Amino acid sequence: MKPRISEKGELKIVGCVSYGGDIAEIWDVFTRHEKAIKHANLSAGYEIHIFPDNCEKGQKYHIMVGVEVEEFEDLPLETFAKTIPASTYAVFTHRLADGGYAGANDRVNKWLNESEYKLAFPYSIQYYDDRFKGGDKPDSEIDIYMPITPK
Q1: Domains of the chain, with CATH numbers?
Q2: pTM score, two decimals?
């Protein structure tokens, strides 16, 4: 899986947060509140994984699921706002048929280890648009954004 390298400006995301919890459950919580989010672009969803320092495989980390907004205004009580900094990204398009989420993570990490890049910030973004048909649909596709900087 070879990524494309892309620049992306600052993102404003509003959504729900979990620490090491069930990702499907946090998506369920979010979908109950998403229509109340003002200035939201509801055509795509974001799943942001925020890693602690020296994160190791199997370690818990924060997960935020949400949507991009133009501005933060009158947020529903159950939601949180996060500004993701502008960055250069390695963008991987992943089909779930190609090993599910675990397979994607393994290939992304392998590419990072072998490339001339390292993570610029301790997070990754999964981008869900109309190519995503559901977690149980092998033809579903997502984009995985990894913020990078030269080693």
Answers
A1: 4-150 (3.20.80.10)
A2: 0.90
